Amino acid sequence: MQVYLPIAEVSVNIFLLLGLGGLVGLLSGMFGVGGGFLLTPLLFFIGIPPAVAVATGANQIVASSFSAVLAHFKRKTVDLRMGTVLLIGGLVGASFGVALFNHLKSLGQVDLLVSLFYVIFLGIIGALMFVESLNALRKSRRGVPPKRRKHNWVHKLPFKIRFRTSGLYISVIPPLVVGLMVGVMAAIMGVGGGFIMVPAMIYLLGMPTKVVVGTSLFQIIFVAAFTTTLHAATNYTVDIVLAVLLLIGGVIGAQFGAGIGSRMKAEQLRILLAGLVLLVCAKLALELLIEPSELYSIAGA
Question: What is the pTM of this model?
Fold first, then answer.
């Protein structure tokens, strides 16, 4: 059963889109990530234009993150002050990212930019995650407790603010920089940025794990919504039909993923996620390197 996507201007099997949303929801439930960094490349693979995939992927992140952050508010595990600082950096980064996205789109280079960003970031994050997970798995088997690295230079920076929920007294500069980077990635890659923000909040800022996820989701909601609005207003690339179908599948898949993830060890989950990230990265890299099946040329008279 085919459904026509008016903004993407392609017809796609409705069950394929529901299944894709379900797969990303399953992974989100298993690994505790938004899934945008996997959803957008998967949309590339089924023929959705990169500009539409990026904008629509960001749109889906808003809905999934909003429902999740409500539970964290009830548990009082959201640091609103830290989230606001991250959000300021994120909004600035998103504005810059959308401006860069629009400029490259006018030059006809946006598809290449998005693919290169994914290959670079997924390759780096996947490799680091895989190595860290293997080391953690070996230590857990030997009964060695994991150690958290402390970055003393972070505490020497100026403009310090007390973040009471996180129990921190640090400079606002590192959170602003983290938010800025995530905002740029949200605009260009159509991701929430949680797969970079969460490790940065834990290992760089030193936030307690219990407040990291909720605070990250709080920032992601507004940055993703802002990014989606900018893309919709300037590029007209948000496909509502595509977003709704992906959301339906994602909601169903997340329920099954949460059940599966609760039965597995954290180290095993991280290794599986790292392997999946590297697999998607390799697929994108191959598509950039191999000769396309259809070649086009513009020959002058």
Answer: 0.68
